[in-house]
Specification:
Elements: H1 2-49, E1 52-55, E2 61-72, H2 73-79, E3 86-89, E4 94-97, E5 101-108, E6 120-122, E7 125-126, E8 129-133, E9 136-144, E10 152-155, H3 167-171, E11 184-187, E12 190-194, E13 210-220, E14 224-230, E15 241-247
Parallel strand pairs: 4-8, 5-9, 8-15
Antiparallel strand pairs: 1-2, 2-13, 3-4, 5-6, 6-7, 9-13, 10-12, 10-14, 11-12, 14-15
Length: 248
Amino acid sequence: MAAQEMRIMERIDTGKTKSERASVTTIVSVIIIAILVFAAISAAAFVMYGSGTGVFGSGQSGSGIDSLFSVNNTSFNRMNSIPAGVLVNNSSNTINVTSKSVTLIVEAAPTWYPRQGDFWLIYGLVNPNIVISAGTTVHFVFINMDNITHMPAITTIGPPYSYMPMQGNMMGSGTDSGSGMMGYQNGANGSWLAIGPMQPGTSANAQDQAYVASNLTVTFGSSGNYYYICLIPGHAQMGMYGEISVQG
């Protein structure tokens, strides 16, 4: 009788072991699936806001590379000086670039500036016209100095802008190319070179406030009119854009 009870207990223990193994296998499977899903989402995010290449102007190559990073007040004050090869004309609200490769610091609606609404500020000028020659490479450093999110982009599409200016291109509908958000879009409605949203920085009460910044390097291969705008709904519509005049 004791031997029979022992065999019954062994069968119960064995059943528990198999059940526990099945549970462990299920958990491991769920973890693997979660990792794969996360990897897929990360890859998609890179496609949405990673580097982009395409055509700007009359068939000449244009390219862009972006990345997000943080800039504090100390770093900003050190980097926000007018570089060589850049002439700032206050009377005409124009920035003339004579160099074939230049870095421009572009502030997104700094809260300290005496102006309301959404705008770009470049070396003290609001939404200035940037004048460059064909073949020039511009390394834009966009810095979000506002308390709301901004999303920079370079486009061949000029104003006036709708509430959601990139809706067609972002969704890949109609005559636009692509089937979703991508770093670069080129279609019948124009070309876009966009980067991901820049969230607000740390609190203004912080000892050394930090701002979210993003690099976007663009080579303008041919003459024409281009625009730097903000893609957050309503921002470009309300005036957050400026022109880039590429002269042949």
